[in-house]
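tool_call: predict_structure(chain=1)
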Amino acid sequence: MIRIAVIGDIGSGKSYVAKLMSRQVFNADEEVAYLYRKNKDCYYKLKKKLPNYITSFPIKKMDISKAILSNTNNLKKITKIVHPKIRFQMNKFIKKNKKKGFIVLDIPFFLENKMNKKKDVLIFIKAPKNKINKYLKKRLNYNSKITKNFKKLQLPLEFKRKKSNYIIENNFNNSVKKNVKKVIKKILINDRSNY
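tool_result:
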C-alpha cells in the first residue's frame, strides 16, 4: 500500500486535492471535529488544561478559538492533547485500508508532528498567495489571528516543497483535476516498484 500525504500552506486546497485523489482519505480536521463532539476523555483533558475556556461538552469550536486567541501557548496545550488521539485514529485508518492500492493522508502539521515515514509519497500543494487569502476569507468563522498562530507552528513552506516528491499546482479552477490525475498516474507507475 502506498501512503500519500498532502502538504502545503493553510488554505492551499489540500483537502480538496485529497478528495480528488481517492475515496480512502484520512482527514485530520474532520477527526478533530469528531473528537470535540464525541470524545469525553479529550474534553476532560482540555478542561483540566484550559478551565477558563473549556466548560461544556460537546466542546465548542468557538471556545477553542477563544483559548488560542488569548494566548499562543494554549494552542500548544491543545495540540499536545489532540495529536496523540489523531495519530491513533490515523493508525486505525491505515490498518483498515491496508489492502487498498494507496491511501491519502490529509493532516495539517504532518511533517511538524513527525507522522511521516521514509517511503511516504509527499505531495506539495502550490497555490498563489492572493487566491489562498481570498479562499480563507470565505471560510466560515475565519479568523486571521488564529490562522497566523497556526502558521507560526508550520515548517517553512520552501522546506516542505523540497521534501516533496511531487508538486500539484492549485489555481482554484478546473486545471487542478488534470494535475491530480497526472500525478496519481506517475505515483502508481513510479512508486509501485518500491512496495
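agent: The radius of gyration is 17 Å. Proceeding to next step.
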